[in-house]
Amino acid sequence: MEQTFIMIKPDGVQRGLVGEIIGRFEKKGFTLKGLKFITVDRHFAEQHYADLSAKPFFNGLVEYIISGPVTAMVWEGKNVVTTGRKIIGATNPADSAPGTIRGDYAIDIGRNVIHGSDSVESAKKEIALWFPEGIAEWRSSVHQWIY
Ligand code: RTP
User: Fold this and answer.
1) From the alpha carbon of 57, which atom of ligand 1 is closest?
2) Cβ–Cβ contacts within 10 Å for residue 13, how many?
3) Do residues 131 and 34 make contact, with C-beta atoms less than 8 angstroms apart?
4) What is d(CA 81, CA 64) in angstroms, rounded to the nearest whole number?
5) In which residues is ATP bound (predicted)?
6) Residue nearest to atom 1 of ligand 1 (CA)
7) Interface ipTM > 0.85
């Protein structure tokens, strides 16, 4: 079954959106397979965003991610990468539809509350980076009512 890496960024944590965001993924029918509340250091944040290192906003982005604890998660389910990105909304909250997380809870691209893997391949890389110890082996008992 497909998995994705979802991170509630420091602004989402500080603003008390953790429960709301987890609830949206749970209510959709996805399964929470990994959950960790941590503050990462600069080197780690740079590794996570390595693909964006040439961007002018890279340093600001790294400062933002290391500014407080984040909630790192692995979610599992059919098409969870693509559907997860739809639940999250467009990168720039100005373009995110109402009903999406960013559309409902964010205004500025530099404080857009949440990250979600953009492909199955990046999800695999990000899960390996954030959960090197592995994740829980369990299958939700509601599966038969969702699929
Ligand atoms: P994410 O990785 O956080 O899910 O975001 P994304 O795929 O939707 O967007 P991406 O282009 O990968 O950018 C990663 C994060 O960088 C910040 N950003 N700032 N100031 C700017 O113009 C700008 N552009 C991007 C955002 O926090 C974005 O989520």
Assistant:
1) 20
2) 19
3) yes
4) 24
5) 9, 57, 85, 91, 102, 112
6) 115
7) yes
Write the secondary structure of 22-44 as one string of H (helix), E (strand) and C (coil).
HHHHHHHCCEEEEEEEECCCHHH
Residue-level pLDDT at 37:
97
Q: Report helix, strand or coil for 20.
A: helix
pTM over 0.90: yes
Task: Report d(CA 123, CA 121) in Å as an integer.
Answer: 5
- Ligand 1, residues at Cβ distance < 6 Å: 52, 57, 61, 91, 109-110, 112, 115-116, 118
Please list the ranges in the chain whose pLDDT falls under 70. none
Separation of alpha carbons 18 and 142, rounded Å = 23
pLDDT, tens only, 48-79? 999 999 999 999 999 999 999 999 999 999 99
CA 23: distance to chain centroid? 13
HSE-up (13 A, CA, CB side) for residue 78:
5
The dihedrals phi and psi of 7, each to the nearest 5 degrees, come to -130, 125
* Two structure tokens written together for 92: 């720039």
User: CB of 121 within 8 A of CB of 27?
Assistant: no
Strands 3-8 and 31-38, by their bridges, are unpaired
Annotated binding site: 9, 57, 85, 91, 102, 112
